[in-house]
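Technical note accompanying the year-one report. For the benefit of new consortium partners, we illustrate the data format agreed upon in the data management plan: each record pairs a sequence with a structure-token string. No post-processing was applied to the example shown here.
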Amino acid sequence: MEGMTHRWGMSRFVGRGEAVGLRLGVDPLVERWLWSRGYRDEGEARSFLRPSLSALHDPALLPGCERACARILEAMSRRERIVIYGDYDVDGMTASAILYRVIRAIDPEADVSTYVPHRLDEGYGLHGEALRALAGEGARVVVSVDCGITAVEAAREAKEAGLDLIITDHHNPPAHDDPLPDAYCVVHPRVGGAGYPFGELCGAGVAFKMAWCLATTSAGTERVDASMRLVLLDCVALAGLGTIADIVPLRDENRVIAKHGLARLRSTEIEGLGALIRASGLEGEEIDSEHVGFVLGPRLNACGRMGHAREAVELLTTARGERAAEIARELTRLNEDRRAEEARITGEAIELTLRNGMGGDATRAIVLACEGWHPGVIGIVCSRLVERYHKPTILLNRDGDQLQGSGRSIDGFNLHGALVACAGHLTKFGGHDMAAGLAMDGSAFEGFVRDFLAHAEEHIDSSMLLPGLDVDCEAGLGELTMDAAHCFDSLGPFGRESGRPRLLMRRVVVDDEPRPMGSKGAHAQITVVDGGMRMRLVGWNWGERVSRIRRGDRVDVVVTPKINRWRGRVSVEGELRDLRASLT
């Protein structure tokens, strides 16, 4: 029989016999799951079950926030031109839209516009040339969103051009002995002395806290009027999109923003967002984090990857009626182009990985460069290779004697820290622990590969190369009831550090031969029994992996409970996460 395909982590593991003691009025299995996730206090557990907007921290605590808001409101009163300088991913787009919409809600005549660098022509981050051009066009205040925390040179050029630069960002700040950019102010949850109570906001989350502070400061009271409240609720929807798409940990404020943001998507008054939902076939659906990650997010990102992100920003800010529908349709078309390009590059990258001997045990990371790799797509392909080989991966497009690309990491390996260690080879880089962008001269590539692989060898233990699978708690097959499944469903949104439940069922018996699913048999279904109870398990991409499982085998399985609705029938089934022969 096939062995397990993950490293089963049980540091938080709770067995069926363990007393929990929470009194939450929910299914006992769900209480056990909450206990295993670290919610040992009833108050904390209730806050998780019912995340409230009132749990958001005071935006005045965000370093630099009040100073930034005062300058923006001053610029509005003086009719100075304000430019919101964003990034070309979902986080940057939604952050730009949040500040734009609140500024316009405070003053519909405000001289405010947005600027998004072109991914291919300019690349990520603040650019001195663009800032000088904006100053030449009359801008007095530039507010960066989702970028700028390491842009020391660009900040200097902005100051020389007469701009008041306000940097809002969430990416890793410079090392302790390196200076922050010399900007008018820096708004970042992890700088400024003691910092902010929660340091894991995304760019849109930071922008939302800024927008909230702008609204209350302008109103002169902590309670805004009804019209501004509706605007802020729509901004929660935008911040929820950015939070989920940027894969930040879904806990604390991020969980609140994501939960309420998803709920607001169903009734948003942002016409462009509604048009995107309709073009994506989600009208009337209960939109969840998977819809954001696999349907809405990729369409918005496709604009920045395959075209220019300014159209996506327009969709989220000023687009109305037919113009909104037109942009939404175009994003769908661009996403199809992106998928085709992704498939081509993925095939080439896998071939190159094998050719360079990086797919096996010889290296603990993958670093590749090739001509003709679309810079807007290779970040996604990095993720595909990480999924396939479970190694940190950097892919670079070679354009003449210049290389530019992206990297993705695995849990436990700080990608940004690795790039800092190899900074001597790079002309530019930025990002965080799990994802980064970088550029270098072609002549530096061999040295970079050597040093990056050496760094990975030093910092990656061999056990880290087997994907981890945290098992939350043990469950009996009979405990996976419809009530429990409905309760688990209500606990979303799910994402990083708040994944779907993973329940271990021991010594269940395979009741029939595994059957293939899908047109190409890529998936499989297995029926298991235990104590008179029977359940169907579905294994996505398990078509080949179950070939040696036989009827009557006794197995341990890790599953995520799901509600299956098919032809009017509703049942509970398990989504198979891993399987092994029973050890006892």
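Partners are asked to follow this layout when depositing records. The chain has four domains: 7-11+472-581, 59-249, 270-346, 356-465.
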